UniProtKB/TrEMBL annotation:
The keyword Ribosomal protein does not apply. It is an enzyme of class 3 (hydrolase). It comes from Nonomuraea zeae. This is non-reducing end alpha-L-arabinofuranosidase. One of its GO terms (biological process) is L-arabinose metabolic process.
Length: 508
């Protein structure tokens, strides 16, 4: 008999809004994410606009991607934006020392990134260079991008073909300052961030949302230092404040940094270890939020998880510096679990960015370097199936004690995960059965509204290792889920082993 779990959801008690920015993305100059991924150059045979690959844009538009973080990552702190403007032939070549020691010709720069955001309908999130850049360099970049009227940077922008300023809402003050972004202590970084934050000005109507480079995983002391040193939100004299949010990075790595595990050749034990690591994101967001609550009980400073996702050993035969990995049903379940956690933290968590969108780490899209064939990954489908949560009100889900669980080493993994939201007269419930072998049934006891219609979809496959390839692009793809039955106790949803399901209920 399947495990039966009852979940109570009061559809008329709306919780914090789930910002669409929790479904944000990240594109670094790393491996084949930008070059050969998003950007193939104007001379490519592949359909492109200004070198930007149009089938990639089309696939991502279907996700309504809300924002795109660029140019890094570690690359951000060695990127000098002035090298990436003007005629391409004149742009200097640099070495991407972090990622494969390859040459970077700077053909994808500020104008190309902003054009990409326009094509995607996504808001730009630019990470400025604190580690090896200057305050003036960052200040000039903001001016170049966002100022109207006349100024040295405005004249330069216009000379490069762009009359109107762009709108740039999200501004990162460096990246991983504790590591690749300068190996600073929290104190040192806080002092730097105050200077860089001060001179990253609001020009005209463009209001920057400054995001300070935050902690590595569970480094709560880092968050505490930033809250003490930067957390004040400004005053009449200095209205912008130094930062409006701070970030944290957390990757799901069940192995060690030396041997992270294989993306496709894994066993059941590896799978459960992965899920335990993924579920840890809840503990980390809670820990950082608790620290922030001490200094900012009104929740004015946002928490941004601007790098998350699985990190496996690279695919055999690929450049170790390019972080190219396959993406299976297991990755999709990791994503589903993260989103449930994000929805529960919607009161503090204002943005999250999966690493990374194309051809790097837990990607949405993989492209073949030879044929150019494009494949949508299982993770892509979770983003698509969860689109209805964007800017919806979170709904609390109460599970009784005794939900199915597995003991994994010293950890207990609850194997049924769900979250819900409401927008107008529509409730969306996302459900995951993380058990590798056993099905489960969840009875959704929706209170406070009567259900007039139901549409359910499922993402699963015969094996956790299944993934999509150019030869079998839909091996793991969503389909209609018929096993949703109205009962006197609520909607009974059958969850096969290792499956992700969305149930959309229309209310009277
Ligand atoms: O996403 C890959 C790298 O992981 C990023 O460049 C860095 O910020 C993190 O360590």
């Amino acid at each position: 008999h399947d495990a039966v779990v009852s979940a109570v959801i009061n559809v008329d008690v709306r919780g914090p809004l789930i910002s669409r920015h929790l479904y944000g993305h990240f594109a670094e100059h790393l491996g084949r994410c930008i070059y050969g991924g998003f950007y193939v150059g104007e001379d490519s045979d592949l359909p492109n606009e200004g070198g930007i690959r149009l089938d990639v844009v089309e696939a991502l538009r279907a996700l309504n991607i809300p924002n795109l973080r660029w140019p890094g990552g570690c690359f951000a702190d060695e990127y000098h934006w002035m090298d990436g403007i003007g005629p391409k032939a004149d742009r200097p070549v640099m070495v991407n020392t972090h990622w494969g020691n390859v040459e970077e010709n700077n053909h994808f720069g500020t104008h190309e990134f902003m054009a990409l955001c326009e094509l995607l309908g996504a808001e730009p999130y630019i990470s400025g260079n604190v580690g090896s850049g200057t305050v003036k360099e960052m200040s000039d970049w903001v001016e170049y991008l966002t100022r109207e009227g006349d100024s040295p940077m405005v004249r330069l922008r216009k000379a490069n073909g762009r009359e109107e300023p762009w709108r740039v809402p999200f501004w990162g003050l460096g990246n991983e300052a504790w590591g690749c972004g300068g190996n600073m202590t929290a104190q040192q970084y806080a002092a730097e961030a105050r200077r860089f934050g001060t001179y990253s000005r609001d020009h005209g109507g463009n209001k920057l949302y400054r995001i300070a480079a935050g902690a590595n995983s569970g480094d709560y002391a880092w968050t505490e230092t930033l809250m003490k040193q930067l957390g004040d939100l400004g005053c009449a004299y200095r209205p912008a404040g130094y930062m409006q949010a701070l970030s944290v990075h957390y990757y799901t790595i069940p192995g060690t940094w030396q041997d992270k595990g294989d993306a496709t050749a894994f066993g059941t034990d590896d799978y459960y270890r992965t899920m335990v690591q993924a579920a840890r994101v809840d503990e980390l967001l809670t820990g950082h939020s608790n620290v922030m609550d001490c200094y900012d009980p009104g929740r004015n400073v946002g928490l941004v998880l601007d790098e998350w996702g699985t990190w496996w050993n690279v695919e055999p035969g690929t450049n170790p510096g390019f972080l190219y990995q396959q993406n299976t049903l297991r990755d999709a379940l990791v994503a589903g679990l993260h989103f449930d956690v994000f929805h529960r933290h919607a009161g503090r968590l204002v943005m999250a960015n999966i690493a990374q969108t194309v051809n790097v780490l837990q990607a949405m899209i993989l492209t073949d370097p030879d044929s150019g064939a494009l494949v949508l990954t299982p993770t892509y489908h979770v983003f698509e199936m969860n689109k209805g949560h964007h800017d919806a009100a979170s709904l609390r889900v109460d599970l009784p004690s005794g939900a199915p669980a597995r003991t994994v080493g010293s950890a207990e993994l609850t194997t049924v995960s769900l979250s819900a939201s409401r927008k107008d007269d529509r409730v969306l419930v996302s459900l995951s059965n993380l058990d590798a072998a056993e099905p489960a049934d969840v009875v959704l006891d929706l209170r406070g509204g009567s259900v007039t219609g139901v549409r359910a979809r499922i993402l699963t496959a015969a094996n956790l290792q299944d993934h999509n390839t150019p030869e079998a692009p839909a091996a793991v793809a969503p389909r209609a889920h018929e096993q949703v039955t109205p009962t006197s106790a609520g909607l009974r949803v059958h969850l096969p082993a290792h499956s992700f399901v969305t149930v959309e209920a229309s209310l009277a």
